[in-house]
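REQUEST FORM: STRUCTURE PREDICTION
Request ID: SP-0412
Submitted by: Lab K.M.
Chain count: 1
Length (residues): 453
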Amino acid sequence: MQQCLESQDKCSLSAKMLHKILNLTVRDVRFPTSLEQHGSDAMHTDPDYSAAYVVIDTDCGLKGFGLTFTLGKGTEIVVCAVEALAGLVVGKSLQEIVSDFRGFYRLLTSDSQMRWLGPEKGVTHLATAAVLNAVWDLWARAEGKPLWKLLVDMDPKQIVSCIDFRYITDVLTEDEALDILVKAQKGKQQREDRMLREGYPAYTTSCAWLGYSDQQLKQLCTDALKSGWTKFKVKVGDDLEDDIRRCRLIRQMIGANNTLMIDANQRWDVAEAISWVSRLAEFKPLWIEEPTSPDDILGHAAISKALAPLGIGVASGEQCHNRVMFKQFLQASALQFVQIDSCRLGSVNENLAVLLMAHKFQVPVCPHAGGVGLCELVQHLILFDYICVSGSLSHRMCEYVDHLHEHFTSPVVIHDAHYMPPKDPGYSCEMLESSVQRHQYPEGDVWKLHINK
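STATUS: Completed
RESULT:
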């Protein structure tokens, strides 16, 4: 206890934010969700929800926690990439980082040798997200605020200073971004109060993973409806006749007035996507998510144009590499719903750029959150988007899955199908140490058991 108090005294006596980073550790944490087909879709039939889990230690005892999401195999590669970035972080003070956050972002993403492995995409960008998520968590904890509140309370100029505008100034300049944020100051407090009262609207993906039986679908939909859910997403893309049957079943379960979305997880070619989704149009889906390759911007544009007369939008973004690709998706009118991801892009910094670009193009943001820790993280970003950028809830909702929240020290709180704003300081991605140890791969007890079977 005395040691703890001495540590707190040391922090309080030092200048604010002078926490020096002494160490960065990363662990491979995996959950065997494939055993029960949680997360299964047309392209990822047996996912084990996993994370490269980062902990930053400082000289006064304050820690920062971050992660990036994976599906099992390959997490060890992301861990190696995080370790390769650690030398760029250790030895710096928090103040040094956040006083030039744009510069720090570029330091991680533009190392003259490491960037060859990206740049700003793939494994190195997943690793960058894990590291930066931990830094943002550390900053929010140092300020004693949840991450969303840290962002909401920032001066617009400070927000802009965190963003790397390189490669996107043909669509969004610093001055334009600042203008958006300044204009959104009007009514900001009322919107924050509304979020604290009501929360942010959510939709559920947990009822209709592709590997679930019909009986499971029916039971989960029944339970969700009783809990107040009105927006449901169904995985499609494996077999057309089966998709028709399952979509009919779900539509009958949820009724005509509730919202249905469908998600193919990149299964089709462009013409196939148009044909397949046209056959599902009778079930009135709001959107088709990831109908083709996540890299095919013009393909998404063609699908969007073809499906517009049917009243079906196109959603994508969970595997969109970076802000540059989002820029082009928006320029090409290829998306009617932007789906940011808290671990695919370069953390908060890059997501801020996408939120601002989406607002300029008047395309609603509906984040991806299907994976361990993603709900905990992205809730902060969508709260900021509503309070400080878009000011609108029209056609907006955040994905929710009900798996694995019990492994976090500050799990999401859902009330009446709404995300309630987190209250604990930080970015909500600290895991229980007991869960980390039990699920660490391959030495954790869960995996010793699983591997030996």
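NOTES: Residues 193 and 387 are 9 Å apart (CA to CA).
Reviewed by: T.R.
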